[in-house]
Amino acid sequence: MADKSSSNAYWAANIRLIRVLLIVWGLVSFGFGILLRPMLSGVGVGGTDLGFWFAQQGSILVFLVLIFVYAARMNKLDREHGVEE
């Protein structure tokens, strides 16, 4: 990665990935767990309603998935731009 344009493209892709994952994180944790909880209360999951499940269990599982998605996408992005370790 020698020239400035490829460096800018790499960081633009990196920031775009982070932005998308943060939007998903915010939607799941704040949106589904807090704001949309009353609307999700009629849907049952594992003996409780879906809003409570997102607030307690679902958001944690989504966070773990986001970590693995970020690692995989960054490895792919690093290979595409020639900066892999």
UniProtKB/TrEMBL annotation:
Keywords: Membrane, Transmembrane, Transmembrane helix. The chain crosses the membrane at residues 20-40, 52-72. Residues 8-84 form the Sodium symporter small subunit domain. The keyword Transmembrane applies. The keyword Membrane applies. Pfam families: DUF4212. This is DUF4212 domain-containing protein. It comes from Albidovulum marisflavi.
